[in-house]
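Hi everyone,

Forwarding the result from last night's run.
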Amino acid sequence: MASGETRNGVRFDSARLDPVERRFWRECYEAVPAEIAAGHGIERRDFGPVQATIVAGLADVPMLNLVLGATEPGAVEGGHLAAATTWAGERGVDPYVPVAPDTPGTVAAERWLEGNGFATGYAWMKFVRNAHPPLFREPRGVEVVELDAGSEEPFGTIAAVGFGLPAWGAAFFAALPGREGWRCYVARVDGEAQACAAMLIEGEVAEFGVAATLEPARGRGCQLALLHRRIRDAGEAGCRTLFVETGERVPGRPAGSYRNLLRAGFEEAYLRPNWQRPSG
């Protein structure tokens, strides 16, 4: 897999980041109670090095319908990418297939996808950062609290509402606090939890995600406060590389998350196109 370096010299290695990303989504799906999974078509399956996560009941939500690992060794040659996309299609889902650029498996994955009716769509930007302490000021008026297992704070509900999911979508996130490797937080404004965020730590790598804010608190600095706390905690935990992903900047799409990440010291690593069948 490829490694690279940002303009300011932050080094990254996708061979180290990609397995953490697959674990991130795998554990979100594993956290869903069986009865909710069965009722909404929530499934995860591995095909060799390829991981497919789908929600038939929310087939039009890209972040919940993913096939990851398309550029892994053997993904194309072993038929695993074909098997994963076929399996998802049989369940009524046209998943996103993200393909990282400039890896040994990129060309083979792109050729297979193009030859099987997939086309590039909206891309996601991968950001990386080292673990030096935050240089930006912590926003005033926002209290960030880390959650333990069994916390009564509405972590999952905030995530579901913030992402525009139905109420049962909270099940993807509600059980993450206290899970091994996970650090989960809420941001309080005037004493009420109004935003959430998490990070998954694996060795010296931390992935940031599950960042959502309720409408009444948007523009109050909740996500910057959550970034500040996670960066600090990741450094204290011994992490060396932090990464996160958000949608590419295009006219007409909100760019608040993009701006927050740049302000927090994250740097653009590479744009990762999402392949999908046009019918999706």
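The domain at 132-239 is CATH 3.40.630.30 (Aminopeptidase).

Cheers,
N.
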